[in-house]
Design goal:
five-stranded antiparallel beta sheet; alpha+beta; 12 helices
């Protein structure tokens, strides 16, 4: 929680979804601006006085002269600030199937608060916790989710679960059974999926833990970098969800390439956290986005040949990617006018490119799928060409 002059900021940590603040902890005259996906529950003398959202307001105003003349005193106020979401809860899963096999994976539940339901979250501060994070909420719900999944999946064999047979029915059953508990916290479930890719599940859970630990230790000095790490994690979760919903399909070259690029991007962000080189980061992100776009276009071509239904889904992905690329193109143009062409930028770009080349070379050498290997080699050639062009431009402008 930060206060700058008269501005009150209740959320500086991307993992925090709610914070309970006592009125006497807020100096007089502090203002707060609530975004459309933020809400503030105002409690006066133990009762909910109202819920505000999407507005600029004074946090703890004093009562006027007229009420004081009639004997009214300043109410005892407290505030519950909440980020409405949606929030992705990542829960480790381990179940024993009907044929005696043990399956390990991850269940992801996408939940959100509403303005009407968020006051129910006051039960958490009432138990002593004044700050609620995504991981804390996941830890509270994990035992019940795991119990329901184990009961529902006990009658299915391991091969059927891996293929995704009946998985939608199981997730629908889980949603129905979890509805009372989620509702008691003011939450509504939007979607869910289960991934049996153990390595991918462990990687996502590790990334979530790393992000929360970095924030707790104040290791992340730049709020923008923290938001980028959160965005990288969300992108990995979306990719895992897409892969989990492809019940009878093997991992395509685009998914493998995107996972490798996102992994390299995450490692780069985690290793160089706190270093303020906007030009280097913009170049690395642009290269990764270009490779992801190429992989998505290739996946779209293959999907259009395979099935009309897949072609429709890929068309939506391509449109979203195009809009994203337009935004990023404008961002790169703005940053290109402001960035200084200096040797430090060239060295930083070269270091990021070397790491990307190492990742793609390792994929090409170790992959058993010839399509993945060819895609990695093609991306490696394009990356090397982009490095040469970038070096020429840097020397020419300097």
């Amino acid at each position: 929680m930060q206060m700058s002059e008269t501005r009150f900021r209740w959320r500086t940590n991307p993992t925090v979804i709610a914070r309970y603040v006592m009125g006497h902890h807020v100096p007089a005259g502090m203002d707060v601006t609530l975004k459309p996906n933020e809400a503030c529950v105002v409690v006066e003398d133990g009762r909910v006085a109202g819920v505000a959202t999407q507005q600029h307001m004074e946090v703890n105003p004093s009562i006027g002269l007229l009420p004081r003349l009639f004997g009214r005193s300043q109410p005892n106020r407290s505030f519950l600030f909440a980020f409405l979401g949606p929030h992705d809860l990542l829960l480790p899963v381990e179940v024993t199937t009907s044929d005696g096999q043990v399956l390990s994976g991850m269940c992801s539940m996408r939940v959100a608060f509403s303005r009407e339901s968020v006051p129910r979250l006051l039960q958490v501060p009432a138990k002593g916790a004044h700050e609620i994070t995504v991981d804390e909420l996941a830890r509270v719900l994990h035992p019940e989710v795991l119990a329901h999944l184990r009961g529902a999946m006990a009658g299915h064999d391991a091969e059927a679960l891996r293929r995704g047979d009946g998985l939608e029915d199981l997730l629908h059953t889980l949603e129905q059974r979890m509805r009372p508990t989620l509702s008691s916290y003011g939450l509504t479930q939007q979607s869910s999926f289960v991934s049996w890719n153990e390595s991918e599940s462990q990687e996502l859970l590790r990334m979530r833990r790393d992000l929360e630990h970095l924030v707790e230790r104040n290791a992340i000095l730049d709020a923008t970098a923290a938001a980028e790490m959160e965005a990288a994690l969300n992108a990995r979760v979306r990719a895992a969800e897409q892969q989990a919903r492809m019940a009878n399909a093997e991992a395509s070259a685009s998914i493998a390439a995107q996972a490798a690029l996102e992994r390299a991007r995450w490692q780069e962000l985690a290793a160089t956290e706190g270093v303020q080189h906007d030009a280097r980061r913009a170049q690395e992100i642009a290269e990764a986005e270009h490779q992801v776009k190429m992989a998505q276009l290739e996946a779209q071509r293959q999907a259009e040949q395979a099935a009309p239904e897949q072609a429709k889904r890929d068309a939506k992905v391509a449109e979203a990617t195009r809009l994203f690329d337009e935004v990023q193109a404008r961002k790169r143009e703005r940053m290109a006018m402001e960035a200084e062409r200096e040797q430090a930028r060239l060295d930083a770009v070269s270091a990021g490119s070397d790491k990307m080349i190492e990742t793609l070379s390792r994929i090409a050498e170790t992959s058993d799928d010839p399509q993945v290997a060819m895609e990695a080699l093609r991306q490696l050639a394009e990356l090397r060409k982009a490095d040469v062009d970038a070096a020429k431009d840097a020397y020419r402008d300097s």
